[in-house]
Amino acid sequence: MSIIVEHEKRRKEILEKALDVFMDEGFEDATFQKIADRSGITRTTLYIYFKNKKEIFNYSIKQLLSKVEKDLLQIRKDKNVSVVDRITTVVCTIIDILEENRRLLSVVLNYLLYLSKSESNPDERVRRRTVRLRHILAAMVIEGVRAGEITAVNIRTADDLLYGLIESAIFRLVVLHRESVKEIKEDVKLAIYRLKLNPDA
Q: Fewer beta carbons within 10 Å, N or C terminal of the chain?
């Protein structure tokens, strides 16, 4: 049992170091050897944990998203705050995390471009990675409608709106190199305000 625990612990440490390599080097220039060097192990040892660079990258992103999801679920569970305020906090928290990880976003964007060049479908890959996030947003909108805080609205449309604001933040941070996400957070507040059943309440 302790061997499995140690293996998983070492694997997580490698993923954290690998994320640094991807952010420093970009996806295409990050190599198995660079990841091994940063992790303080040999390349041969690295193969015990992962079969290739793509697998390491995917697991690194998954590990980061798991932590983010855990934080968002904590916000969602706080019944002392209105659903509308929780939705606003969740989306603004995501945008803050994106701002903090703008270098990683740039690597992810380059990776998606790399996938599209290799005739893979990046849209499908993004959908699989974000389905849980979208589920959290949709569930909160449903909760708001049931609680009478949010106007009766097509849940998918509302979910697309909220997720679209997150995509807009990514575009502004990575492509337009905006220094701040203040504007997009104001857009989020306005959009969620418009979803309220009684906006002036």
A: N
